[in-house]
């Protein structure tokens, strides 16, 4: 295992030569940097689209599905964001790579259900982009369980996780969650609400920890309560993290990534010790 990017993501070194990646960007500097970095890291040959016409042609020329698109907000021929609208309308997973950013634009981007956005405002921009791409291409290996008695909350969290390419299961009660965990030992992360009618999040976590440790399953608690003591109680019950609703997409995704990175690091160290 090696580390990728600046967040400490653990990367197995696998190649993704079969992934079809399109880069919609008119800057020669950035297209060159992105192409070189993705080739050396993942053996990916990206398709460069320097204007809106190139992007449309790239989509039309092949029946092979586009795995992921990296797109600037504005391209020649699409100066008002039409390229991004085009990709979203085609349901192509897209990472926005842009030098233009402010809060209102952030809100518009996230409303489009993009995968991520990376700012071209620092020397690590291309490395951050590579990390985001790697996460998207490998997130399918992670199975996440959402536990919430609210159908709306389950649908919201599920859609967020599926946007990032995770495999997702859902449970509408603590009892159902225990059944799913028993039948799916590959689940590495559980996100559970605190307030549920049959078994609350604290009790569910306690029961799980009687049989499954943090080296096998990470647990994030969530709640809409304003009681700040809930986080302490949840962590003492065996949880690994806690978030108060409402939370923004970026924070949610970072917390998920941090917990799964920690899980992989723990499992890697345990394997190394077993071999030694």
UniProtKB/TrEMBL annotation:
Name of one Pfam family that matches: Response_reg
SUPFAM superfamilies, per the entry: CheY-like (SSF52172)
Keyword Phosphoprotein: yes
Record domain Response regulatory: where: 20-135, 143-260
Residues with the 4-aspartylphosphate modification: 193
Keywords from the UniProt entry: Phosphoprotein, Transcription, Transcription regulation
InterPro entries noted in UniProt: Bact_response_regulator (IPR050595), CheY-like_superfamily (IPR011006), Sig_transdc_resp-reg_receiver (IPR001789)
Protein name, as recorded: Response regulator
Naturally occurring in which organism (per UniProt): Rhizobium croatiense
